[in-house]
Give the backbone structure.
Amino acid sequence: MGTLLVGQLVAGCIAAILWTLGTLGGGFGTTVLFEGLAEVGLVTAVALLCTIAIAPWTVRPAGTWAIVLMTTSLVRLVIIIGLSLLLYSAARMAPKALVVSAFVTIAAVLIAETLVTTRFLSRLKSESKTTSP
């Protein structure tokens, strides 16, 4: 499951690059740029910590992985919303910058997770009972 962590980290980097190009190309200024990059870092850190929390190196039945990964995604979204609201309230950042940068990062992380997970699960044989990604 190290591949999943790498995929999430790469997705966070891609989101940061997209955010930087979008804000600088659109002429939104450095304040919005740094606020969005803070949110990208927050979302990426939460994604990585939630993945580490499920102990992906543990051997589990293949069917259990789908439930674990979906539950982790839901919990991660709730944590991201809570921390983003806290960040907005504490620092009075631009709400549009936080929402858009969070969306870009969440979408990138979900795409990376889906690619890694489907690639992993497609390599399993149907008779596999337990596995460790």
